Amino acid sequence: MSSRYVLTPVAQADLNAIEDQTFDSFGLGPALSLSQAMHRVFADLAEQPGLGHLREDLSPPHRPFRYITIKQRFMVIYLPIDDGSPSSA
């Protein structure tokens, strides 16, 4: 089952910049691999909004951000919203 997710404009701009930099530095293969890994995590979050680690020591008071690492280099930081869907930080 494919779940829908929507990135905020800021998150989409960040993702585009990361993909562009990866392509410029390492080529098409690594850029595609990273892009696929990121979108896989986003789809997983749409299916299971509670994924990731809660880090109260890194989150502002009363804002329980969750953290997921991608390919040991990138981190998705998100806040699940009331309807159970993740909201990108």
Describe this structure in words.
- The structure is a single chain.
- The chain is an alpha+beta fold and 89 residues long.
- The protein has a single domain, classed as 2-Layer Sandwich (YaeB-like fold).
- Helices cover 43% and strands 19% of the residues.
- The protein has 2 helices and 4 strands; from the N terminus they run ααββββ.
- It has a 4-stranded antiparallel sheet with strand order 1-2-3-4, covered by helices on one side.
- The longest helix has 20 residues.
- The model has no long low-confidence stretch (mean pLDDT 85).
* Beta fraction: 15-25%
CA distance, first residue to last residue: 25 Å
CATH class: Alpha Beta
Structural domain tally = 1
Oligomerization category of the chains in this entry: single chain
Structural category is alpha+beta
Question: What's the CATH architecture?
Answer: 2-Layer Sandwich
What is the strand tally? 4
> Globular, elongated, flat, extended or rod-shaped: what is the shape?
globular
CATH topology: YaeB-like fold
- Determine the mean pLDDT: 85
Output the strand order for the largest sheet.
Answer: 1-2-3-4
For the report, how would you describe the main beta sheet? 4 strands, antiparallel
Q: What would you report as the Rg, rounded to the nearest angstrom?
A: 14 Å
Instruction: Give the H and E element order.
Output: HHEEEE
